[in-house]
Amino acid sequence: MSLGFTKQKGFFTKYEIPERLPHMVSINEFNHSRDSLVDIYTVSDTTEGFFEAFRKLRTITPQAPVIDHGGNESSTFADCVMMSKNCYLSNVVINECEDILYSNIVIQNNKSIINANFVVDNCSNIFQSSYVVNSFNIFYSKLIINSSDIRFCVNCSGCHSCLMCHDLQNQSYCIENKQYTKEAFDIQKQELIAQKNTFDQLYSQLDISKCTISSDQSQGNFIAFSDQVTDGYFIDRVSKGKNLMYVNGPGKVEDMVDCFDA
To answer: Residue 157 contacts by C-beta under 8 Å, 6 or more apart in sequence?
Structure first.
């Protein structure tokens, strides 16, 4: 999976080295020829070796500029998209997602996601955030689960209306981990929102040295509801895993090794 896009041979594509893919075709042409791709293969001279034979096969095999899994609408300029619409400059957008811009790994019924990374399960209105699960109205935050109206926070689960907080569970109207009345919180919130020129600085100062929620015996970062994970990054509900990145499941998955985007 590419994390960037380029323009090659008139196509919007994730591939940066056109020499490796000389036979690039449109998505429609590739889909129409998909069933006949096996007919391209011919038995080569066995003395030339596997890699040389593979290289030659690669030069004549049609290749789509991006992967379109089908069922999409207005998502030409995105890669690895399935059953979603209005996706732009984004990677891996899967199942009933809408209005996804400049984002990576957005899975299962998410809407209005902008400049975000790893957003899963019924999220909406997410901006400049990483690892958000089942939450809405999340801005400039990281590792936020089952929460709403969160700004400049890290490691928060089950929280509502929090500013500049870290490592909280089931809290509301907190600023820097101190709870306020709703009225006092709203005043300070409006003061912060008015200082838009400080947003990037506040975001860069978030402490992400150890982002984990409810995870035991695990090594890595951005790990939630997992156990016995070694070298895991952006992991959700995994047991007994090693060398993993961007792995989540509808239930806890077990015994995964050397997996990316699973």
So the answer is: 144, 145, 146, 147, 168, 169, 170, 213, 214, 224
- Cβ atoms 216, 228 nearer than 8 A: yes
pLDDT in tens, 112-121: 999 999 999 9
Please say whether the dihedral angle defined by the alpha carbons of residues 107, 110, 113 and 116, taken in this order, is positive or negative: negative
How confident is the model over 188-201, as pLDDT tens digits? 999 998 998 999 99
Alpha helices in the chain (DSSP H): 27-33, 50-60, 182-193, 199-204
pLDDT mean over 151-173: 96
Instruction: In whole angstroms, give the CA distance from residue 111 to residue 132.
Output: 12
What gap in Å lies between CA 62 and CA 57, rounded to an integer? 10
Domain spans of the chain? 6-66, 88-204, 212-260
